[in-house]
Specification:
IsoPropMal-DH-like_dom, alpha/beta, oxidoreductase, binds nicotinamide-adenine-dinucleotide, 11 helices, IsoCit/isopropylmalate_DH_CS, single chain
Length: 342
């Protein structure tokens, strides 16, 4: 019998509870050994506890060090900071892992199998921003400070290179803008080149590319890339770009990894426009659960889950509306569970 694994479950807002139910049904069918501690956050947290990230939720993750999270809405007004950003900071989740793999063939781009590893805590997203008043205009000048540290870059690059080795990636590409932002992104590039020379030479091919060229190359010939590793802002943009190559955010899972905690999520938001209608596509969260199984060293279950998703979509042709099908969330989940059990 597999040892139980304690994990925090945050159903989240909007379609969150619907896609979480679908994911739990699939994990149950797999016999995944998670023991869930259900917690609230986002809009649900504000409504029940007056805080988008209540202390009980933080305590739970401090205890389990592992969470599966539905999308969270940050209420506008009220001065609330994004719960997602707070979670990253609180648990020092420095690496954001965003795989993109073609599941439904015949789209604009076939046979995509890429992963973006994004630095999640530094760069231009640290939030040091302010305005300068000139004459009567209080917002005459807007300023932002970016901070990248050698230590922060190194831990992310080490994570990415190690992940490349353990998952058999052949090529890693460091994406930067060191021709213009010589210090801010140059330090990341230099750190990566140095780390490769010292510890990883020969284990995979290392390449470097400037962010703007990378965006163009990804659209013209994405197959030339295998793993992209980059700083926070560039990674944010590129990871959505690669999600677009494989059918959009409905198919995009993400993992936020720290030294001693990891949070798995769908990349899309709470989709308030379709919440409660029973039509949400749960695949992004299901794929995130697959990453969580891999993280917990349960790769056979992860592979079984991914295979069942492929078969449900491509053999049974059961697909939700956003993928051109007619199935609701429940019908898709039933077909998926059937595939897992057969
Ligand atoms: P969104 O991703 O929620 O929705 C964009 C569009 O995609 C909508 O038309 C929606 O119906 C559709 N969509 C998204 N996920 C889908 C799914 N699984 N199945 C079918 N269709 C799906 O983006 P938004 O509308 O900009 O954001 C809504 C809320 O979500 C905001 O409050 C935002 O802050 C939050 N958000 C949270 C996260 C997160 O928690 N990781 C990420 C992004 C946005």
């Amino acid at each position: 019998m597999t040892t139980p694994i304690q994990a925090t479950l945050i159903p989240g807002d909007g379609i969150g509870p619907e896609i979480v139910d679908a994911t739990l049904a699939a994990l149950d069918a797999l016999g995944a050994p998670f023991e869930w501690d259900r917690q609230i956050a986002g809009l649900g947290g504000v409504q029940v506890a007056g805080d988008p990230l209540p202390p009980a939720t933080l305590d739970s993750i401090r205890r389990t060090r592992l969470a599966l999270k539905g999308p969270l809405e940050t209420p506008s007004g009220g001065g609330y900071r994004s719960s997602n950003v707070r979670l990253r900071e609180e648990f020092q989740l420095y690496a954001n892992l965003r795989p993109a793999r073609t599941i439904i063939p015949g789209g604009r781009f076939d046979n995509i199998d890429l992963v973006v590893v994004r630095e999640n805590l530094e760069g231009l997203y640290i939030g040091h921003e302010h305005y300068v008043k000139i004459d009567n205009d209080p917002h005459a000048v807007a300023m932002a400070t970016g901070i990248n540290t050698r230590a922060g870059g190194l831990r992310l690059l080490e994570y990415a290179f190690e992940h490349a080795v353990t998952t058999g990636r052949k090529k890693v590409t460091i994406v930067h803008k060191a021709n213009i932002m010589k210090a801010l992104t140059g330090i990341f590039l230099e750190t990566g080149l140095d780390l490769y020379e010292r510890k990883y030479k020969g284990k995979f091919e290392l390449d470097t590319v400037i962010i703007d060229a990378c965006a163009m190359k990804l659209v013209i010939n994405p197959w030339q890339f295998d793993m992209l590793v980059t700083t926070n802002l560039f990674g944010d943009i590129l990871s959505d770009l690669v999600a677009g190559l494989v059918g959009g955010l409905g198919m995009a899972p993400g993992a936020n990894i720290g030294a001693d905690a990891a949070i798995f999520e769908a990349v899309h938001g709470s989709a308030p426009d379709i919440a409660g209608k029973g039509i949400a596509n749960p695949i992004a969260l299901l794929l995130a659960a697959g990453m969580m199984l891999d993280h917990c060293k349960l790769p056979e279950m992860a592979t079984k889950l991914r295979t069942a998703i492929d078969e449900t979509l491509n053999i049974d042709k059961v697909r939700t509306g956003d993928l051109g099908g007619t199935a609701g969330t429940a019908e898709f989940t039933k077909a998926l569970v059937g595939r897992i059990k057969c």
